[in-house]
UniProtKB/TrEMBL annotation:
Family annotation (InterPro entries): FUZ/MON1/HPS1_longin_1 (IPR043972), FUZ/MON1/HPS1_longin_2 (IPR043971), FUZ/MON1/HPS1_longin_3 (IPR043970), Fuzzy (IPR026069)
Organism field: Bactrocera dorsalis
Name this protein carries in UniProt: Protein fuzzy homolog isoform X1
GO terms under biological process: non-motile cilium assembly; vesicle-mediated transport
Organism domain of life: Eukaryota
């Protein structure tokens, strides 16, 4: 995988920054000028150049507020992921620059001045392309979620903020209703800002580009345990000292957080039994834009834990997920919902049989989906039953918090006994 990100001013084409990720060389100035020149040439003709493809590469051009132009070039990545990456990169700038200042003549100087703040977020976004599902809030589940959710709601009431979440590792464990109502871009930017910070304890003024790009908020992060942080979006009050005291009172039980951190290795409860033919799992809600990306560390060779190939399997499943979601989104964009259903285009179950692996995906009517990567030796007819049984096992425990889980469970139960 190779990615280039080029940021230029829209009117003058002046370079602001260039970033790359993967096994690729630096782009020469002539290439940068050519990529921007194509975009400006078509724009002069009244044509918006948005995307093009070569044999191996995909190129995306995005103008933001007629002030900033982003050019994203990548190999082995879908157009949808690159569009999301462009949104996040521009959002990282908007975290620290008021949207009204984007039309200012001193924009270039301001962007260069704020580079020390937003460039770590841009680098974290590039890193997330290889380790996370971009455009979804990555979560971790455990049997402590319900109790932690109750404590988080208590903390939310004490501090007077609707936007709170508990992050364990780099993933969200529980969040308030207001947190999940935020646009996924805003959520991702805040998590990337936390992950790129040198400390877990922060009190940073930020703008939320999707919620309100002109109003400054406080993004406060308070460490509760070595891998656990509570995140709050609030105004000038209460003070950081008061917030820390409230958080410590609400999450005074260290055993809950310690048990929670044990689930980090696979993002699922320890006691959940996963069939040995399962290699990796993705459970996602396409409406709320949240997901679980979980490897299966127990393989079929006598129940021994294996490390080799785990990253490659996750990467393969992630690519299948990205391509399928993009394909289904394109179908929905061409046809209306009634046309899709009448033509039986809307997928319910999908199968892939590859050289060394098999994959199965299931969708329900409320935006939930599960993707599972199997060993190639598993019988194809058995994949559906194993996957739906696993999904039911994940969702049946009431101590695990997952939006839409009850309706999804009922759908799966009905389908299992069809």
């Amino acid at each position: 995988m190779s990615i280039y990100i080029l940021c230029l001013t829209t009117n003058g084409g002046l370079p602001v920054f260039t970033r790359k990720k993967g096994d690729c060389d630096n782009l020469p100035f002539s290439t940068v000028a050519s990529l921007n020149g194509f975009h400006m040439f078509f724009k002069s003709l009244g044509i918006t150049l948005e995307v093009t493809h070569s044999e191996d590469w995909t190129y995306v051009w995005r103008d933001f507020h007629n002030a900033v132009t982003l050019i994203v070039c990548a190999r082995s990545m879908t157009e949808g992921v690159l569009q999301t990456l462009a949104e996040i990169v521009f959002g990282s700038i908007s975290l620290f620059v008021n949207i009204d200042e984007l039309v200012d003549l001193t924009l270039l100087e301001r962007m260069k001045k704020e580079a020390r703040n937003y460039m770590p977020v841009v680098d974290a976004a590039l890193e997330a392309c290889t380790t996370r599902i971009l455009g979804f809030t990555n979560c971790v589940l455990s049997t402590e979620n319900q109790q932690l959710g109750q404590r988080l709601n208590d903390f939310s009431g004490l501090c007077g903020s609707l936007f709170c979440c508990l992050v364990v590792g780099n993933n969200v464990t529980v969040g308030t209703e207001g947190w999940w109502d935020l646009d996924v871009i805003d959520r991702e930017l805040l998590l990337l800002l936390l992950n790129s910070s040198s400390t877990l304890q922060n009190d940073i003024p930020v703008y939320l580009p999707k919620k309100d790009a002109t109003l400054a908020y406080r993004f406060v992060t308070i460490p509760l345990a070595p891998s656990s942080v509570i995140c709050v979006i609030c105004g000038a009050a209460p003070s950081f000292r008061e917030l820390r005291s409230m958080a410590q009172d609400a999450f005074c039980s260290e055993s809950l957080l310690q048990n929670m951190e044990r689930s980090l290795t696979r993002s699922l409860p320890e006691q959940l039994e996963i069939d040995q033919c399962v290699l990796a799992i993705i459970v996602a809600n396409l409406s709320i834009k949240k997901c679980i990306l979980a490897p299966n560390s127990i393989q079929a060779t006598g129940g021994k834990r294996t490390i080799g190939g785990g990253i490659l399997r996750l990467d393969l499943l992630k690519k299948i997920f990205d391509q399928t979601v993009q394909y289904n989104k394109n179908i929905s964009g061409v046809h209306t919902e009634d046309q899709i259903r009448s033509r039986c285009i809307e997928p319910v179950d999908q199968y892939w049989c590859l050289d060394y692996h098999k994959c199965y995906a299931h969708y329900d009517t409320i935006g939930n989906t599960i993707f599972i990567l199997f060993m190639s030796s598993v019988p194809t007819p058995a994949m559906r039953f194993i996957a739906q049984k696993l999904l039911y096992s994940i969702l049946q425990d009431k101590t695990i918090s997952w939006n839409g889980a009850i309706k999804l469970c009922r759908n799966i139960i009905c389908k299992i006994f069809e």
